[in-house]
Amino acid sequence: MNLSKVLIFLLFSAQASGATVVKCVDSKGQVTFVQHRCPAATEKDSMISVESQRPSGAGPAVKIAEPRPIQANTSVRRSYNHCGNLTQVDIAWATAHGKIQVGMTGDDVRGIWGAPTQINHTASGQQWVYPIDDYRNRYLYVDNQGCFTYWN
Predict the structure, then answer these.
(1) Alpha-carbon distances of 50 from 35, 45, 110, rounded to whole Å
(2) Three-state SS at 104
């Protein structure tokens, strides 16, 4: 539902004295607007105050609604896994671009680069071998907790 449809809806549904509308977003990203609390499975994003037309109809036009910007919570980075501080967004970006990053799980690395051609066992975990060409290899190291720790 685009903003103009929302504003038309609000214009016709608002009472004479005004109303409060709440924007709700479910887990699939579906946006709905309600005049009461959001359902339990959704998150409340913002409240929008709505002013209806003046009963007399006289005077200049009144802005119906002013959406408030939603502030991102940048103070907390929630880690996607136990290996480091990468978030799901970090992993999704790296996967989309074919990049690997320290802090991924071994499963994340396999999802991006595929299975290694050889796995050597070490005291601290595993060394995964990926061929670069006929003469050179790239070595990735995965610790005993399944975390990608470094490469050369």
Answers:
(1) 11, 16, 51
(2) coil
10, 19 contact by CB (below 8 A): yes
Structure tokens at 131: 């061929």
69 Ramachandran zone, left/alpha/beta (phi>0; psi -120 to 50):
beta
Residue 148 burial by Cβ neighbours in a 10 Å radius (0-12, 13-18, 19+): buried
**pLDDT tens digit sequence for 54-69:** 656 666 656 666 666 6
Instruction: Return the structure tokens found at 113.
Output: 């680069």
Asked if 112 and 98 touch (Cβ cutoff 8 Å), the reply is yes
How is the beta sheet containing 137-143 ordered, strand by strand? Answer: 118-122, 125-131, 137-143, 148-151
> Side chain identity at 84, as an amino acid letter?
G
Token pair belonging to 44: 């409340």
Q: What are the pLDDT digits (tens) for 74-108?
A: 555 566 678 888 888 888 888 888 989 898 899 99
Mean pLDDT rounded to a whole number for the chain: 74
Contact 47, 67 (CB under 8 A): no
| Listed residue (126, 120, 118) closest to 144, CA to CA | 126
pTM for the full predicted model: 0.48
